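Entry 14. Structure prediction run on the chain below.
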Amino acid sequence: MIAENFERLDGQTFTVTSVEPAQQLRLIEVLRKGKGERIGGAFSVLWESDSQAMLPQGTYDMTDDDPGEIQLFIVPTYLRTPRDRAPIKLA
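Output returned:
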């Protein structure tokens, strides 16, 4: 998948099916990061969950009506508010 695929899914909820109990993650941000080596360029996606359970870093099976079943490598972050997601300006 490329950034464009995720951009059209912004705000949708995905189900992580490879953990028990299954967890819901809502796609809240797609950030393009330049050309990169892969087709479509480098990008990252940010997910949000209402669950208190943390998913450790790893590859997870996820599902949604569109795109269906996918596998994603997830790195946990601890951003809790929109202010936490604000860009940091370096002087």
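The first helix runs from residue 3 to 7.
Filed with the rest of this week's runs.
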